[in-house]
## 1
Amino acid sequence: MPKRDLISPDDLSLEELTALLDLAAEMERDGGRDLCAGKILATLFYEPSTRTRLSFESAMLRLGGRTLGFADPGTSSVKKGETIADTARMIQAYADIIVMRHPLEGAARVAADYADVPVINAGDGGHMHPTQTLTDLYTLKKARGGFQGLVVGLCGDLKYGRTVHSLAPMLARLGAKIYCIAPPELPMPEQALREARSAGAVLGETADLDAVIGQLDALYATRVQKERFPSSEEYERVKGTYVVSAALLSKAKPDMLVLHPLPRVDEIAYEVDDDPRAAYFEQAANGVPVRMALIAALLRLTGETVLAEARAAEPSTPGRARPRAAPEVCANPSCVTNHEHYLTPQFAPVPDESRLVHCIYCDHEVQA
Amino acid sequence: MPKRDLISPDDLSLEELTALLDLAAEMERDGGRDLCAGKILATLFYEPSTRTRLSFESAMLRLGGRTLGFADPGTSSVKKGETIADTARMIQAYADIIVMRHPLEGAARVAADYADVPVINAGDGGHMHPTQTLTDLYTLKKARGGFQGLVVGLCGDLKYGRTVHSLAPMLARLGAKIYCIAPPELPMPEQALREARSAGAVLGETADLDAVIGQLDALYATRVQKERFPSSEEYERVKGTYVVSAALLSKAKPDMLVLHPLPRVDEIAYEVDDDPRAAYFEQAANGVPVRMALIAALLRLTGETVLAEARAAEPSTPGRARPRAAPEVCANPSCVTNHEHYLTPQFAPVPDESRLVHCIYCDHEVQA
Amino acid sequence: MPKRDLISPDDLSLEELTALLDLAAEMERDGGRDLCAGKILATLFYEPSTRTRLSFESAMLRLGGRTLGFADPGTSSVKKGETIADTARMIQAYADIIVMRHPLEGAARVAADYADVPVINAGDGGHMHPTQTLTDLYTLKKARGGFQGLVVGLCGDLKYGRTVHSLAPMLARLGAKIYCIAPPELPMPEQALREARSAGAVLGETADLDAVIGQLDALYATRVQKERFPSSEEYERVKGTYVVSAALLSKAKPDMLVLHPLPRVDEIAYEVDDDPRAAYFEQAANGVPVRMALIAALLRLTGETVLAEARAAEPSTPGRARPRAAPEVCANPSCVTNHEHYLTPQFAPVPDESRLVHCIYCDHEVQA
């Protein structure tokens, strides 16, 4: 059976997504049952991320497997100039499955293209972080049983907040509704919102959290990530605009979930931690069974088939053939194709947007 | 049964201490017998320390458990500004027990307060390093059978040497006597010496190692830690004042133990390594069975009860209630309460010193 | 049985080398069979090296053992000034076998002299990297069945390329022939070539790769290592001189192996990756079974004896006694004896060169 990877949430069909969330619940209930005994997971972190790295390592250890890798590019061959493709072809000899975090957008896709073993994207720059999305969905499903009709407020820095960009279309696909709550200078990008909007899942876009808090079944607050801001002035102005406090929660439904991908800085006051609606530490803990399920499914060790042979086609996308009028280079300076020169930029049509194509590595869109 | 932590040697009653040292001897004799199979130890090192980190990891692996963590704050979420409390609540989902080294005094106490899993302090700034103290005591007991009447010379930099601060009161409590041997500018702080002094366990304080060497059953030399000195001039002046040499040992008892927490710089000449009295490498090796015993006991996996339900009260301390006249902030700039702003400074009475209170995080004393 | 180490390929007799390569083939075929269950490998990397470190860790995990260590001197006690000797005596208490990479030449020899457990040299500055040599030989033997009469071209930076320095004499000893292909300013050092030359195994030295490519059974290309060059001008001039391309391969034998220790920079064009003669990723993968065999053999866990009690004497070297006229210090500034001052420089005769002695740590030669 050909290998599968998880680079973007779109790699999964809705059936696969549902099967993965069910398997995660089974993992949480029954433990890892040594499913991955004798298997090795490589964690290749070209950017530091304690939370994500340790949750993957914990997941693999709880499955009875073992781990190796690096937490920091300073201790890797990167300094000797090795390409992602060569690193992927090296590491596949040392491990049975690869987890990669990389600052370049599309980097994990390149690793998946070159490695014979499954690759999981643990964050590629500002592009995708699919296991965070799976964890977010698992947390909602565990608390509410399902997604149909749920009203989720995505709040804070929606422009730079990578997690909400992939959460919004998934929520729409699963039948939930969303509010986008952000200051005018940090709106959700149109590209991230398009699918939800065309599905009629966007209830509104507002800068006023107070006005909608009472309607929400879940409030998904995002960290104001200093490292994503162009200037520290812009950071300071926005930081603290949408602080979740006890006062705010007094206006919310009594069972509204407060979610946050963590780490928080000032977005959620410490007083909220003791509120039963605070679900962000539970959410962080959920990352372990979700990643256990994903690792076991990608290694085909679950007994039943969770992931089909081939990955889900992008919705309505006929193929990845390069359109005739595609540009020669990707205009996104953080795209991996602008840094790894053995790669050929490739573009695919954007569904329902005949004027646009998107880079198949970083998903940056341009006029066709 | 409620969880236990080890933040300070004072967390252990004398009975518990004895039981732990006995369990360590059993570990050294019989190995780890897979007591921790399926368990995960997290090593959170916000400051580098090869020796301590690797001895904990070796201990856990020899118990059949597994490890994850970070060795360096540069590869952690610390750079994103996450608090100790939040990190503790995250890591408890990834591991069954936490080992933490942190530059702030009181940091491990905070982690223990917030994590649901046991926390071991592997060094919190200049404050405590209780597993070093346990290892020192285990080494003495293994070589001499017990502590009653032993004469131990604590030698070198007693002002900045964290290990001797917690060793002195423990030795006194166990019936040993001590000499403090230090240059006048680097004396043992009164606070560290108080308990031993009031127990009549301090035989003398002197700058003259030669004068007392003949009376010692053990000489505990300490590293002159460059990183603890305010200036490199002060470091250079003191370095080498108390070098343990073959000439010095010719004046010592034929069975006097030479101990050192390692790494040494120049405090012990290489010629001493071949002297049968040199016990410092054995002492380093003893760190493994001691930490095996501690981990197994904290995880309640030893079959018998080593640690009681609640930790030992501080000697003669009626409680940790805040005295009426306590200060609003801790005067120690390295205290964790001055860096993590969700914490409320708290002070407790100092036994037999009615004029004093001490910070319950860093133990800094001030007038009540 | 006394412990064995692997510091230099010369530590192995030809019988031992053959037995190791056979054991590696068995490891590749049958897996690690949990031979190292309950054993711990320490990886002490004072210089970063992802490839070497991860291949050792993968090997130990595939043998059912466990690993600990550091990947970076910044996270070790090195900053506190600990010597290699003291580190070795500490780590032997935490692990059953030690792998060390260190920038100083002779460093691993020092660790082996002080540790009671086996030590494997994973690279000591520009001196030796014996497991790379074993991997290179395993790759050749696996592809060709043996070495007798094989013609191997060593190509590129032969002056600074550590791997070719130990490969050349081993190939000669095993019956292969070599061409040295290098620009005039980067020739193979005479010292590295002496044994092969006196065995009549050197077919030629040339700057012209094109002229000899048709005669080669294997082309061993080496990375132009920027960090080994005295200036970036020298680096830029040489880089790219011997690029292996499809055009070049059109002149080569249809079954010539293309080898490279990796990581490559520009020495092998990406187009060559799809050529069936490209063997460098297979070579990288071979590092795992080779290291599995070595670890299991050094730990004496293989059932049969692979390594004799004592290591092979250096060819024709009567002993390591210090010659009467030996210098007081080693003239190589990167020699470990010039940095770790408890060491006494020692020199041994050079076989068949009565005027020369070599440092027993770094192998630097001087007039006796």
## 2
Amino acid sequence: MNLTVGWVQQAMTGDAETNMQNITDGVRAAAKSGARLVVLPELHRTHYFCQTENPALFDLSEPVPGPTCDALGSVAAECSVVIVGSVFERRMPGVYHNTAVVLECDGTLAGIYRKTHIPDDPGYYEKFYFTPGDGPLYPVETSVGRLGVLVCWDQWYPEAARLMALAGADILLYPTAIGWDEADSADEKKRQFDAWQTIQRSHAIANGLPLVAVNRCGIETAPDSVGGIRFWGGSFAAGCQGELLASAGEEPDTGLVEIDLSGVERVRRIWPFLRDRRIDLYKKLTARLAI
Amino acid sequence: MNLTVGWVQQAMTGDAETNMQNITDGVRAAAKSGARLVVLPELHRTHYFCQTENPALFDLSEPVPGPTCDALGSVAAECSVVIVGSVFERRMPGVYHNTAVVLECDGTLAGIYRKTHIPDDPGYYEKFYFTPGDGPLYPVETSVGRLGVLVCWDQWYPEAARLMALAGADILLYPTAIGWDEADSADEKKRQFDAWQTIQRSHAIANGLPLVAVNRCGIETAPDSVGGIRFWGGSFAAGCQGELLASAGEEPDTGLVEIDLSGVERVRRIWPFLRDRRIDLYKKLTARLAI
């Protein structure tokens, strides 16, 4: 029960049409190589606009379904692949989301997921732009399986991966936009990249699920010309024991990886973690503190 | 705010007195080298007796406090170190626990933790011997900090580490007994070891806490002479970003590591994961399934 998954790791330009052209070219290339599911980076239509807080940038938002969904649906149908894309969603005036969209291989919208955990860090001012998703965390049913789609900052939360697993996900998928502050030391950069990969591999381990994380790459300067982000690429896939199956470097990369979906059943038999969860003792997980 | 932590990674013999002698010698050596906290492997008084289900082996259990607590308290006071040890606890006839005991540096019992998640695998028949701990998961207050003591199988559960963090732990500690089945392939062994280290590093990352895991080493044959376990050692310490600070190989090892406890505050400021937990959406974590 192998599933060939592709990713399109791209550097984004300031021009949305160019970006969408690169992305759809990547989808076509992955599909031609045999991918039945293609995962795109977070917010792939534009530069990562959250480096500054600017009300005018809500103009970049669009409805779901809308133009980006249509464009992705069109290439999904053309190539007969399932696509996990990403949209800056305008849900109503004043309510905008960071939304993953899943296009079925016939081009229809199979489902969406609105980013649950919203970061706010210097250079990643997402709390200004994105209303947190209102849940529940639930996989999207598609012809290639139940896709546990989460987005970027969600990847730091074991809770999110666990909820997707408990809801029957066959695979975890993380469209992402993460990079380095060039002012950080080489050691700090290494710790950050390692932590990012390690915690996602741990979700595969804890839940006995394969996982694919897809990041953008390239350097994007901040609008105020101070700082900027060097997106680290590093898109990767892990198997159900957290083992690294494939990974990209810092350059644009249309990756392809074979994922054995039957590993879920096999690994959960030898690592029966879900059997032994102490749900009688987990109530405080829904509290801010347990002191 | 550095804390020097020692571990005593030992191969256990069939003789309890020899084991306790080796362990107390190790504590003395670690203390002499500057350790203020020494962590021991799980069930360090005996062979890992859970390779078979034998009612007579409940004879190995003892009360807490009791002889092992006394012996550890004695060496803790002698060396003026805090010790995290492990006891097969007889709580009442028919109720036995896999219990971590924390001895203060004056030799008194600071607190205990009863293993919450109990495994049951071929060769690890723990559900026969150990009643699951009845919680709550709470750190033990000591002169060297609030110790988030968990035990072995707990290490596969992000929930356990999270609960300790939310309850104010300063550090996560995992006495452990884990090893390879020699019948497994080299690849499978590598996946198991990597997963074991990776998921624990991920608890450090998710919670911004340092972590020390201490395993036994050596080969112990099964009582029925079929199979047996090659305990893989590999005791290690990780910092608050999950970075590996020190690690042991497969041989007996009295390790020493400097842990910067102020890293908790520093790292949680740059990685504010606890701020963004969506406790409004976590209710299903207390369910068996979320379907």
## 3
Amino acid sequence: EQHLPQGYNLRPLEKEDFSRGYLQTLETLTSVGDVDQEHFNDIVDYWKSQPKTYKNMVITDYESQVVAVGSLIVETKLIHSCAKVGHIEDIAVRPDQQGKKLGLYLIRQLIELAKEEGCYKAILDCDPKNEGFYVKCGMSRAGLEMEYRF
Amino acid sequence: EQHLPQGYNLRPLEKEDFSRGYLQTLETLTSVGDVDQEHFNDIVDYWKSQPKTYKNMVITDYESQVVAVGSLIVETKLIHSCAKVGHIEDIAVRPDQQGKKLGLYLIRQLIELAKEEGCYKAILDCDPKNEGFYVKCGMSRAGLEMEYRF
Ligand SMILES: CC(=O)N[C@@H]1[C@@H](O)[C@H](O)[C@@H](COP(=O)(O)O)O[C@@H]1O
Ligand SMILES: CC(=O)N[C@@H]1[C@@H](O)[C@H](O)[C@@H](COP(=O)(O)O)O[C@@H]1O
């Protein structure tokens, strides 16, 4: 059983996380670009309008700052008797928080959430250099990610 | 420029596709299980209630039978200035329709749809043995798919 450090919490994303470092944390994954509070609110509103699909989580520290972020996108399918798949997306941990196993905790909780939502599997795409980390989270290699960029 | 054979059409999924071989076509990808017309309608209704997220397409032949299926799931993100990603899912072509390049046409159209929806990329997960096919569709390898099965 995995635990968070004292004073740390995992909870759903809130609009107030804009001023608690949400985007700065996300920026450690990839380019976030120009997103002001208004854009941020629009996206959070959109996500909250589809609560069965979008589940966006944050880990905060003892000062309520966002130190890790991650999302679960629940996709409803016809295959496997109308089953669901959980897509784990946009995982980021603030670099100065390494060594606290926040990423491991977050992934395990997102997998647990996918299970609670009735998914038959949880999947994600990653750089081959991160395979070892995801294996530590209990996942295994399933296939290749192919892309077309515009 | 790619074309469909005479009398073939690409269009959005309809409930009537239940009796036109939708599930039999999908079955060539993976196990579909026990899905009756009522279950099918429920899922189609659910997809149609989220039209910005779920785009489910079929190719029909000159007898209006479903010969290929594929879906685009549009995910709204915060990264890249609130960009979208198109997830290409559940691609299947009826085995007796091989050689007509239906799969190639379908993938290209789903990529085009992702572009029209404003996605910055279209991605999919596949078995390594299908990499060559997706490269022919203009895609390239981006990463690994990791999974956790319940
Ligand atoms: C498990 C995880 O966090 N995977 C992320 C994915 O969710 C994210 O959307 C993408 C952005 O990369 P990009 O900026 O190169 O498109 O990177 C990784 O694949
Ligand atoms: C491009 C494409 O069609 N990829 C499919 C994916 O969409 C589908 O959901 C999965 C089902 O496999 P499963 O039955 O082993 O979970 O197979 C492939 O990865």
## 4
Amino acid sequence: MRNLLYLLIGLFVFQQQAIADQYFNVFSPDKKLQLNFYLSRDGIPYYSLNMDNASILKRGRLGLQIASGDSFDQDFELDRIDTISKSEPWSPIWGEEKHIASDYIQMLVSLRQAKFQNRLFQIEFRLFNNGMGFRYLFSDTTVLTNFIICDELTSFPLSADHKAFWIPGDYDTNEFVYSYTKLSDIHSLKERKENDISFKSPISDSTVQTPFTMKTKASNFISIHEAGLVNYPAMNLDVNRTDFSLKCNLVPDPHGNKAYLHSGDRSPWRVVLVARKAGELLTNRVVLNLNEDSKLKHTDYIKPGKFVGVWWEMHIGKSTWAYSKKVNWNHDSDITNPSGKHGATTENVKRYIDFASKNKLDYVLVEGWNRGWENWYGSGLERIFSFTKSYPDFDMQGISDYAKSRNVKLIMHHETSAAVTDYEWQMDTAFKLIAQFNYGAIKSGYVGKIIPRGEHHDGQWMINHYNRVLEKAAASNLMIDVHEPVRPTGLHRTYPNFMACEAARGNEFNAWSLGNPPDHETILPFTRLLGGPMDYTPGIFQIKMNAYDPKKSEQVHTTLCKQLALYVTMYSPLQMAADLIENYEQRMDAFQFIKDVPTNWDTSIVLDAEPGDFLYMARKERDQANWFVGAITDEKPREFLLNLNFLDPEKKYQATFYRDADKADWKYNPMEYEIDQKKVKSGDKMKIKLAPGGGCAISILEIKN
Amino acid sequence: MRNLLYLLIGLFVFQQQAIADQYFNVFSPDKKLQLNFYLSRDGIPYYSLNMDNASILKRGRLGLQIASGDSFDQDFELDRIDTISKSEPWSPIWGEEKHIASDYIQMLVSLRQAKFQNRLFQIEFRLFNNGMGFRYLFSDTTVLTNFIICDELTSFPLSADHKAFWIPGDYDTNEFVYSYTKLSDIHSLKERKENDISFKSPISDSTVQTPFTMKTKASNFISIHEAGLVNYPAMNLDVNRTDFSLKCNLVPDPHGNKAYLHSGDRSPWRVVLVARKAGELLTNRVVLNLNEDSKLKHTDYIKPGKFVGVWWEMHIGKSTWAYSKKVNWNHDSDITNPSGKHGATTENVKRYIDFASKNKLDYVLVEGWNRGWENWYGSGLERIFSFTKSYPDFDMQGISDYAKSRNVKLIMHHETSAAVTDYEWQMDTAFKLIAQFNYGAIKSGYVGKIIPRGEHHDGQWMINHYNRVLEKAAASNLMIDVHEPVRPTGLHRTYPNFMACEAARGNEFNAWSLGNPPDHETILPFTRLLGGPMDYTPGIFQIKMNAYDPKKSEQVHTTLCKQLALYVTMYSPLQMAADLIENYEQRMDAFQFIKDVPTNWDTSIVLDAEPGDFLYMARKERDQANWFVGAITDEKPREFLLNLNFLDPEKKYQATFYRDADKADWKYNPMEYEIDQKKVKSGDKMKIKLAPGGGCAISILEIKN
């Protein structure tokens, strides 16, 4: 379905001091965004972006430098410009919306350099009503058959000293707490006190990561990210604190090179999202729309769902991933000295399977099932983990049979300890084992320093690794949930078996570090989640860690009801109910919300939002009339008027409200909650109160006659 | 079979200036070699070696430096010394000898450092009659569970300015022409004119590679190498031109680290071979004896043999590896623009199968069968080659069926273009394909710059790769012949499916470079081949390249008969008959030798030898009475008296002599030869003449009554 409309292009040549520019522009379908392309007298390409006649981006540089010196940077002459209007609506097999519109103007700029007449360099722009993307194309007709990118010159010159929501630039991790400062106040190396990230590679004091979200004085929002990151390193941004421009900073390989490409290759999309209010960012689908359609032929096995697992009990110290007290290097030798604290025992796993089955949860994750956990952390070695050999107290066949009999699927866990070459080496055998035992998905992990040595989590080699795993998993009918990868860029459109990833500071930090401040979950949807779903692992009911050990002072920075609300505000098609079974069993009234809330939606509505402060959302269950509301706040208490005008006026609903108790408070009284029910209809209005650091979750289920 | 004999150890403490040493020694079983171990007052371990009461190695340093600073280098105290005498004869399933003796004295020195009392550091010496080995053991009881080697301090201080046979130290290649100079004249960066090695990483002007072979003034020979290179980088040697000591120089990883180890690990063996005449080096089995026994449970599929293949025709330019004239990056797309020169066509391969079948050769190699050759060289990219997708004119099923019907096995070719991670990624699928089509072996190649980027051909990561491939190949019943790997260290004892490798300058250089000087093959057995068999690809009959193209001046630096003699002097269990079928068909009388000569032996005898000058050998066919003689010379003509005293006096033989014609000469008349036959018996003597750059091959076949 394509509406083709050829447009006239504005073409001007104007004199400005000594620079004679060629200048072209196009407007978004609604005419509110204006994209300008310039070619300077030196043949350097630039672009700029306006919204509502005001500048969003000033003249930003375009181009790349090549290691051989034959760079795509200047001396360009215009070959042609092709402009076309497109409408490409599509329907994801899972997601926040059932149908997604995609209307844009494409402008393809073809450039040549006098000294490389056979070489075509193209910049493809796509201008939507709520954002834009552009990428570089290295044409098939080029004589440069393969080449090394040593720098990308792309810049994003902002028009003023906006307020920015940012985490420090880093080649290996994104598990930071967010800061929000003016652009001129960004100091990435001046970190908060936490020192609890396993491995970092900071870049500079002025480098930040994407999605990089800003709020202007006029209360517009801008977010800069990328889409379709394939065969290229991730982009960090170097912030110029004086002129507020951002420059692309690509993750290097061990030689300092950025990307190895050949003719016919493309860069990923550089993306600028714009919004006139915060909530619009959350329903902005430009990142997804810039990604390619699904490459998977078979998708029957892809099933969004909820899971429990042998996991939080290790984080809180109740049990261990490791089986033995003794370091054990050889997986072919017998393993001795059981510590007695091993979590992934057959008996314990069956308990989780029973709980999942009883409560109609779809999956059970088991971490610590396989050999290697005694000595895995930070050794820098390969062959740490076996991905095929289980501990002696984990009966693979028995557990698999049991899960099948209970109609529950298992999630395979693969912690690679970042020994990625070793993981690839074992992968085919490991995937065969998974198929044999009927697992539905893999949760993988990449904690530590990458092997191949000198590579980074976010470099080209690792990007290719993550994407190759998606392909190999698809060939084995497996879904993927990756921890410690590069942040996502909408590739779950192309690989719908890519269900979720971590790529941010997850709930686990609350168990053993200074944790995530109460505003953390109000920022993530406006930054990290713009790229794709996050396996944040919500649903912690026992919020104070001193319940397990009186010496502990850690806690989740939340009320219990906020944990429930996260199932609505923090989208993932695979959602964990992360807490211990025993904590749920004591509060099955509250757990009812987790049982009810789906992981796949028809529609998503932002009721109101301000990043760093609060987020109120409503979502309609996929192919059902039921609605779910999630409202969360930072450390401040809030009150808002919920208008149920989104409900179907033809239908009747039973609403269940999971509210913070009057005296609830994330710090002093986090676990007190109230549940009440009433019949509601479209247009009903009601006050919702949120405790400091609190939240409210509401299920609104259709009453069928 | 172990003869255990506990020995008394000489223990002396002597004062020498301010240094109080502890001193211990042991003698070889024949008492001719004396190994001394010292612990200096600073707790630094040293060793030295004498032969016939003369110094071979002066006091050489022992120990290693660790990146964390807690080095195994000094402040050692002696914990204990255990000495034992062992006799461990064994029988390889293929090789130069059917039975190998292994008699040695083992001295295990256990050391501790005061500040690391829980940490045990051991040096295991094994002293044979004709050499020694030692290695470092990092005990299981150490508290240092994992650690990084940043330098190995091992040194080999020679007693005088010996004549050395050497190639330049390099982290990535060993395909050099040999130099022979005094130790004091070694200048590794002052190379010969050739500039035809695909990728080099020179180290320094005084670094050389092992096996590093020297001749003393007393005409003794010493060769320094290593054995059992597993999970550790290869050793180069830094030559001190003034004091004639050599220091270990390990191949680094991208961080500059050398090896990542854990407690329980061991270094490879540092090996010193000694010989009172040159020929003794060639029957020295110390390298093999230091390697571990076979790890393979099934070895039925391991079958030494000879092969022809679609290979030399590409080197001489008759055909091409590539199918298309057009660069083709996507192996899933159709391939177009056939050049018409593609070598690996179904028809051509069948021709080779027919020839092999008719002449009872065992295997046919096919290079250029798979997608990717259009753009493979030096791109630095992954995903260059498909290891599963053949060119459209190569019918995998048809060829496989045809080979089977002709009782010939195929050899799979895998050129990795050094994109090793990509090869590992595809390996399981590729090996499945090989099994499906009934191939017997893999010839792999590693041309170019290694991916993982920043790793080297001879670094720890690659060493692990080569060895892992041997394991995976064994699990698929496949033999391995590796090109462009690290030089071998006797691992074919442990993995008898490791048939051969290149790891030196092979015959192919003669087709398109300045080539290999006539002395090249007289040196290789004394250096490179001390580590293991080489796939040198002998048997070139059309020696002048201008036969193919009058503009060409290249040639093989040999006579035709020398090419035949190489099948005896240059051992490999997989031997190629490398030339074109049409060249053999014109000279089937000479080809008869290649048909007759086996690739597996009962016994090997060096009749006379001088590295760089000549080599005369006789070998007895495995489990047969037949003998084969090979004699080669450098650029000088030679004559020698062949005494057939090695023949069985009880048997009668028919000898066929393949001799250089009277006027034969490697340069001016390389292809003229004479063949004559006569009956011979034990004790017969005859003059054998070799042309300049020539050779003589003799088959001595039992006449059965």
